[in-house]
Specification:
heterodimer, A: two-stranded antiparallel sheet, 3% strand, globular, disordered C terminus, B: mainly alpha, two-stranded antiparallel ribbon, two-stranded antiparallel sheet, 5% strand
Chain lengths: 540, 721
């Protein structure tokens, strides 16, 4: 089977599985979850098979297009998939995190398991599809498609306040993505209008649109409006301050699997959108909005960290830490240089792994004690040493300890940002303040995470009373299944930390393609000229 | 061969850490220390071999020597930046290890102390629930520390800088069920993070200004592709160092990092709390090795500091002030380990003071003190650990006393350590403390001692032009920098005069508080706390033999190193120190008899005062501390100048308060706005509801009206055109 068919299969498999579990297989909980796990394992097999065949380079690979609207309509709208050095990693991450999500739901979900697992598999299909889509319409379909299963996951299997959280999550992201949709359609139409050849065609193909816009950018004023429209959907997904308020609520209420996927994958769709559409397609607007976005990012970094500091609920603390971490991602993206963008892309994966791991661990804790209140715990290290061990790994990964994944991303983002602030032609005081403030986020990040660990896992042992009411007298340390859910993530924590070059080498050519276009069209002539001049002098 | 050695040295401890982590819980258990001790000993042997190989190379090749080994490329981004000349620069981070004099000296010291501490720790930790965990952490620490001193890149230095911080965090909080221990671990990590904030900023600025983070030149086929920050291209003067405000900014930020790791004011507050960790850890990490990382880093960055006299004087002031402050706090502490902790802070301040003189003599003196201090401070800490072991983990000096007969070996070795710390001839501390005082003195009174310096005919403010022939490689930039440096530095002479006086006073304090602790612990009537049970006794040989070995070194190492100025000669072959601009400053090796005599008198006075007050009845102490004038001062010292409280109320609480305010705003303002927007459709909908009357005439009427409006609009908007 060729690689593009594998790619299609990996998207279709969970979809079919979802239908199978939802409609066909009645079965008991035990067999349903086994089927779901096997399907996601097979999907992951396909994902690995696809990712491992990635040839380093900037070319799109594993492309496949199935005509949807016939060419005679004058509209090029296809079911078109493919991967490049940017989407490949997020695609792989989705496949990996779904295994964790299913394993952490194993015993936690007892209500309507068939519906639950089919929703989870639908979600997987949506996540894999959104990153593989090479057609704008297809992208948007998957983009919205991820909303529905998560809406039900939160609304049905969530905690006390699940209805409010689910509706808020749904409306918030839907409102944003409708604006994005308007923006994307306008984009497509503008490109069509701009072309003056006789056989012009209304194309939805992402690579074609990118190429067309790189060749002939749109009018700057229109770009600025289009950017704002795309921003609405993507920034809410990220979420960028001050559009983040749906996130803590959704995270706290969502079941563990929902939180893992939400934090690990869905938030990345926002940053992915910026990097796939806004930055390469709208260079003039990118330049216009960059200072604003950088400020919002750095405010998010510090604001998220300070609010995380005072949380009494473990999940909420980690949710706010996501606001802070995604601020770093956005900062790197809009540093708009190689270091920043590569660091940001790496950090998208990193955040998925470490925050996914943290949410999984909190879920395991919740399953044992049925509370998320920090104050009801103390000294769990004595009782649950293995859980504590994993908690420490993901904590240190999250606060960017060297040797682990977070460090590689953070240091590249910050170096890129410093370069922008000090070295670019636009080196202005404001950006210097932004970059220094961003570094202080690293200190705050260590503070709230270590304080959490100190309060929950260290000190004299205190267990919540609740456990006895539930009759589960013996609380056991992590089971083999739970360890199996975490170990793959740990492998990536250290792999990326110790040898980020492996990943960077494979994403750099693609990212370079989207960045020089942003640079070349900006007023920053110095840098773009030098870029061109430096090509031959580059070190390999 | 040195290529293999430099890899093997960190490899053994890493292997030990991994082995113990895997096999410890089930298989090794109480035998975990064998793995660690063997690994450390192997590393020590390799370090010694490396040391002699480097020494041989230095003799062979003359002045400067380095050798760089590349393991793998961590990250590479081509064309990452365009430097000032329009060249494109790659962001290239290789995992490289270097061997040179500075590294090999540090490696020998670290692995030697680590071996002895591991042996001691096997006795001390015996029976602890986390026995294997302890040795896994310690092995991981020694791996990180050996890497820290051998990497050849700022980013990797930062990596292991954080890694030793992690080990320190894990080991301080080793007894995590004690709330104080886990709080101290967190405090250490966070205060260090504040320092790392500065270090990270410095690294970014270095990257922007130098276009590389490597220490060494990046060479392909004999051609220098990327000149390193401390590579031969820059050291030789072919390329300039950044000068002016940027140089000062880089150095001060580096110093902020050093302040965190090496516990200097204002970031020293974590070290005394770190004493909550097991005592062998205090000896190894918080006295001998990790806390000296800052001194090592500043020494390594000498060329950067050389470009900024402002930064140098700041380093000297921070060092001098910290030495004094910590000395004053140590006077009144009741906890034996805390006295030693503040003494460590104070001695580290001494080292920075020496580095801050900016002269070669000063830097060598600082490193020399680092070297000797490691031996006698490890000895003192292990000695206090031995006391603690016998006293049932009681370390409050008010609760025990007169232990000299009970613990003869601990007593004798502790005495050696105290004499070395106080700086009594011929113990190790005497030589290094004297070197520091001499270098500060020379900086404060230029010209006063030129007759004593055997290797140098020059003073700080000599005319560089005379020398131009000797240093043909000088660039114009470097020479003018030197001129600017020495001219500007002259205005600082007054500051150094005060620093010298303060350093002498600190020497007095050191002798006093050291022997106060010594007399309180080992003299007076024998007092034993209940916790020790009825079997308080001397520690087993596994514990006192390392003490004895360290005592021998604390006695001899200063004298041996000072023979022929061996230490100075070897150290100055380090590339960072052997650069052209540095030779114009004072040469090392001046032994000042008058300073040696006066500082010895000061030390003896300190011991005498301690003996007067704390031997026998302590009537005088009580009388003095009741004096109106002394009581508030005593409270100030006892409460560590209230710095912890100040930080809590000036930094921690306001930030937490800000977090609460933000959280409140998040809920009511940011989210409130969002909800308000969400209410708009609902409000509209409820408004429209009244239109749905169900009356057919109403609907038809509205239809007609609407069509009229549409027609009218259409006429106005489009019909006209």
């Amino acid at each position: 089977m060729d690689v593009s068919s594998l790619l299609l299969l990996s998207i279709a498999l969970p979809l079919l599985g979802a239908i199978f579990i939802g409609l066909v297989a009645p079965g008991d909980r035990g067999s349903i979850r086994t089927v779901a796990f096997v399907i996601s394992l097979m999907t992951f097999g396909c994902v690995v098979a696809v990712v491992s065949q990635f040839p380093t380079g900037s070319e799109m690979f594993a492309t496949k297009s199935i005509t949807w609207l016939p060419a005679s309509t004058g509209i090029e709208c296809q079911i078109s998939v493919g991967l490049d050095g940017l989407s490949l990693w997020l695609y792989g991450l989705s496949g990996l995190l779904m295994l964790t999500a299913i394993l952490v739901s194993w015993t936690a979900i007892s209500e309507r398991p068939a519906l639950f697992y089919s929703m989870l598999l639908l979600l997987e299909s949506g996540c894999l599809g959104v990153f593989a889509a090479q057609d704008l319409m297809l992208f948007y379909v998957f983009f919205e498609f991820t909303l529905i299963p998560l809406f039900f996951l939160i609304g049905i299997w969530g905690s006390e306040d699940r209805r409010y959280a689910a509706i808020k999550f749904f409306l918030f992201t839907l409102a944003g993505s409708l604006l994005t949709f308007v923006g994307l359609i306008t984009l497509v139409v503008s490109v069509y209008n701009m072309s003056d050849s006789a056989d012009r065609i209304l194309t939805f193909s992402i690579p074609k649109l990118t190429d067309a816009l790189a060749l002939r950018p749109l009018d700057a004023k229109l770009q600025i409006w289009l950017f704002a429209a795309l921003f609405a959907g993507f920034a809410i997904k990220v979420p960028l301050f001050p559009l983040h308020t749906w996130l803590p609520l959704a995270h706290v209420q969502a079941p563990t699997a929902g939180s893992v996927i939400l934090a690990g994958v869905l938030l990345k769709i926002g940053t992915y959108g910026f990097l796939r559409f806004s930055i390469p397609m709208l260079p003039a607007a990118t330049e216009f909005w960059t200072p604003w976005l950088l400020w919002l990012s750095v405010i998010g970094i510090i604001y998220g960290a300070l609010v995380a500091l005072v949380q009494s609920d473990i999940k909420k603390l980690i949710a706010y830490s996501s606001v802070s971490h995604l601020g770093f991602c956005m900062l790197g993206l809009f540093a708009l240089n190689r270091l920043g963008v590569q660091g940001a892309t790496l950090q998208m994966i990193n955040h998925g792994i470490s925050t996914g791991g943290l949410f999984a661990l909190v879920g395991m804790l919740y399953e044992r004690y049925h509370t998320r209140q920090i104050s009801s715990y103390s000294g769990l290290a004595k009782k649950l040493p293995v859980l504590t061990f994993f908690m420490l790994i993901f904590t240190f990964s999250s606060i960017g300890l060297p040797g682990m994944n977070g460090f590689a991303g953070e240091i590249m983002i910050l170096t890129g940002m410093f370069q922008k602030a000090w070295h670019g032609a636009e080196a202005v005081g404001g950006l210097k303040i932004v970059s220094v403030l961003a570094v202080s986020g690293v200190v705050l990040g260590a503070w709230y995470m270590l304080w959490l660990v100190q309060r929950v896992f260290f000190g004299p042992l205190v267990e919540p009373h609740d456990t006895h009411d539930h009759g589960s007298h013996a609380v056991h340390d992590l089971s083999f299944r739970e360890i199996a859910a975490l170990v793959p993530l740990c492998i990536f924590v250290f792999w990326i930390g110790l040898y980020p070059k492996f990943f960077l080498d494979r994403m750099a050519p693609t990212l370079d393609k989207s960045i020089p276009s942003a640079v070349a069209n900006s007023s920053d002539l110095n840098e773009s000229v030098a870029f061109a001049a430096s090509k031959d002098r580059s070190l390999d | 061969m040195s290529d293999n050695l430099i890899i093997l040295i960190p490899f053994f401890p890493l292997l030990a850490a991994i082995l113990i982590a895997i096999l410890g819980p089930k298989l090794l258990k109480e035998n975990s220390h064998y793995v660690t001790v063997l690994a450390f000993a192997a590393s020590f042997v390799c370090s010694l071999m490396l040391f002699f190989s480097v020494q041989g190379q230095v003799v062979e090749e003359g002045t400067s020597f380095e050798s760089v080994t590349t393991l793998w490329t961590w990250a590479a981004v081509d064309n990452a930046m365009i430097d000032a000349d329009g060249h494109s620069v790659p962001f290239l981070i290789d995992v490289t290890l270097r061997s040179d004099a500075l590294t090999s000296i540090m490696l020998c010291m670290v692995t030697f102390i680590a071996t002895l501490v591991a042996i001691f720790g096997a006795g001390y930790m015996h029976g602890d629930r986390g026995y294997w965990r302890f040795f896994a952490y310690v092995s991981l620490f020694v791996f990180s520390m050996t890497m820290l001193v051998s990497v050849s890149n700022f980013l990797l230095l930062f990596v292991f800088w954080e890694a030793v911080g992690l080990c320190s965090y894990l080991l301080i909080g080793f007894w995590y069920h004690k709330p104080e221990a886990s709080a101290a671990g967190k405090k250490a990590f966070l205060v260090n993070r504040v320092g790392d904030f500065g270090f990270a900023l410095a690294i970014f600025l270095i990257w922007i200004n130098y276009g590389t983070l490597n220490f060494h030149d990046y060479v392909v086929d004999g051609q220098v592709i990327i000149p390193g920050v401390f590579g031969q291209m820059r050291l030789g003067g072919a390329l300039p160092y950044v000068q002016g405000g940027m140089a000062t900014a880089i150095c001060l930020l580096l110093m902020l990092g050093a302040c965190g790791k090496s516990a200097q004011f204002p970031l020293h507050v974590w070290l005394p709390d770190a004493m909550e960790g097991p005592t062998p850890v205090s000896a190894l990490i918080h006295a001998a090795t990790m806390v000296t990382a800052g001194v090592y880093m500043v020494t390594r960055c000498t060329p950067l500091f050389h470009a900024s006299p402002d930064a140098q004087v700041t380093v000297a002031c921070i060092g001098g002030f910290t030495a004094l402050l910590a000395g004053l706090i140590a006077l009144t502490q009741h906890d034996l380990k805390r006295v030693l902790a503040y003494s460590t802070v104070s001695q580290l301040g001494y080292m920075f003071l020496a580095l801050g003189t900016g002269s070669l003599a000063g830097i060598v003196a600082g490193m020399f003190h680092l070297f000797t201090h490691a031996f006698f401070k490890a000895l003192l800490f292990l000695g206090s650990g031995s006391v603690m072991h016998a006293m049932g983990n009681v370390i409050d000096m008010r609760r025990f006393g007169g232990l000299r007969h009970l613990m003869p070996w601990t007593f004798r070795t502790f005495l050696v350590g105290c004499l070395a710390l106080a700086g009594i001839f011929p113990f190790a501390g005497f030589w290094s403390k004297d070197a520091i005082l001499a270098s500060v003195h020379d900086r404060a009174y230029p010209g006063a001692h030129s007759h004593d310096s055997q290797d140098s005919e020059h003073d700080a403010d000599h005319d560089a032009d005379q020398d131009a022939d000797d240093h043909a490689t000088h660039s114009v930039a470097l020479l003018s920098a030197d001129h600017a440096g020495s001219n500007q530095a002259d205005s600082y002479t007054n500051i150094y005069v005060w620093l010298y006086r303060s350093a002498c006073f600190t020497a007095f304090l050191t002798a006093f508080y050291t022997f106060r602790a010594f007399f309180l612990t080992f003299y007076g009537p024998q007092v034993i706390p209940d916790e020790s049970g009825h079997h308080a006794h001397e520690s087993p040989p596994m514990m006192w033999i390392p003490l004895a070995i360290l005592a021998i070194f604390a006695f001899l190492i200063g004298f041996v190193s000072e023979l022929d100025h061996k230490f100075a000669h070897l150290l100055t072959s380090t590339p960072s120190l052997a650069f052209a601009g540095m030779h114009d400053t004072m040469q090392p090796g001046g032994f000042h008899m008058d300073i040696a005599i006066s500082s010895s008198i000061i030390a003896v006075l300190g011991i005498a005062l301690a003996a007067f007050l704390y031997l026998g009845h302590q009537r005088e102490v009580e009388a003095i501390s009741k004096l109106k004038l002394v009581a508030p001062l005593r409270a100030l010292s006892l409460n560590k100048f209230y710095l912890d409280e100040i930080y809590t109320w000036a930094v921690v609480k306001p930030l937490e308060f800000l977090g609460i305010i933000y959280f409140w705003l998040d809920r009511w303002l940011v989210d409130g706005l969002v909800n308000l927007i969400g209410k708009v459709p609902v409000a509209l909908g409820s408004g429209f509801r009244y239109l749905q009357t169900g009356l057919l005439p109403f609907y038809s009427l509205s239809m007609v009206v609407a069509m009229l409006i549409l027609l009218f609009l259409g006429q106005v908007l489009w019909g006209g055109g």
